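User: I'm writing a tutorial on reading structure tokens. Could you give me a worked example: one chain, its sequence, then its tokens, then a sentence or two explaining what the tokens reveal?
Assistant: Sure. Here is the example chain.
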Amino acid sequence: MSREPANQHPAAQDPDNQHPAGPEPASDKELLSRTALGVFRLSGQFLSVSERLAKPAGLTASWWQVLGAVLREDLPVSGIARVMGMTRQGVQRVADLLVGKGLAEYVPNPAHRRAKLLRPTDEGRAAVRRIDPGHAALAARLAAELGEEQFAETVRVLEQLTAAMDAVAEA
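And here are its predicted structure tokens:
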């Protein structure tokens, strides 16, 4: 009578094969924890790289983040906070610093008298342009590391996760 190896998964010994072989799937709680830890680590990595890219242009990562949010259209502080996933108070502090440094200015908001719009100045736009070569080089290195398809899939999954978090946060 032959015996199965002692280290074989019990499901492989199931004569009816009702239990698939292989490790147990991770629980929802474990998947959430692993996702959160991965995102926290990734956030730290992005902040570190962003600080290195922004410093030669005379910016910080948060200054670059806020200026980047208003390059295409002027936005109120609350709109920047929503788009960038930052607190309104944090954006207000950075916006005031940018205005004080001459990198941005407040302009009237036709939709709301009290909530002025933030607009980059020519100096602010020039500072962001100085970051562009390093930003492009980082993008190229990531694309080479991941491959174009995997890079695009990563973006899609992160956007999907962000939308799902928005949905459950509102519930």
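What the tokens reveal: The chain has six helices and three strands. Residues 1-14 have pLDDT under 50 and may be disordered.
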